[in-house]
Design goal:
The protein is of the alpha+beta class and 101 residues long. It contains three helices and four strands. The chain has one domain: Alpha-Beta Plaits, CATH 3.30.70.
């Protein structure tokens, strides 16, 4: 199992991305929550309210999910990171595999 994370400028964009990826069996589930970000962009410090998403899927789906995010994202340079959990229950892992495979 892997978790792919990204950030979006509004809740609708985050929610729509998750719904599309679940419907297409690319991810088993996704979560999103409001965050505040401070970052440097084009030599200026920016502060924004964003929505961070966590997308739960198998390693075999990584490239297709990343491609989908890139092609459906409103940012010029979206944050996309992949996390491999150090522990997941067998039951959750089995459910995830059955859902996305």
């Amino acid at each position: 199992m892997i978790i792919i994370q990204s950030t979006f400028g509004n809740e609708d964009e985050a929610k729509n991305l998750i719904e599309s990826l679940v419907a297409d069996n690319h991810i088993a589930c996704g979560t999103y929550h409001a965050i505040n970000s401070i970052y440097k962009w084009q030599d200026a410090i920016q502060q924004d309210s964003e929505f961070e998403v966590s997308l739960y899927t198998n390693h075999s789906k990584q490239q297709s999910v990343i491609k989908y995010i890139k092609s459906n994202h409103s940012y010029d340079l979206p944050k996309i990171t992949v996390i491999k959990p150090t522990f997941t229950t067998k039951e959750y892992e089995d459910w995830l595999k059955a859902t996305v495979d």
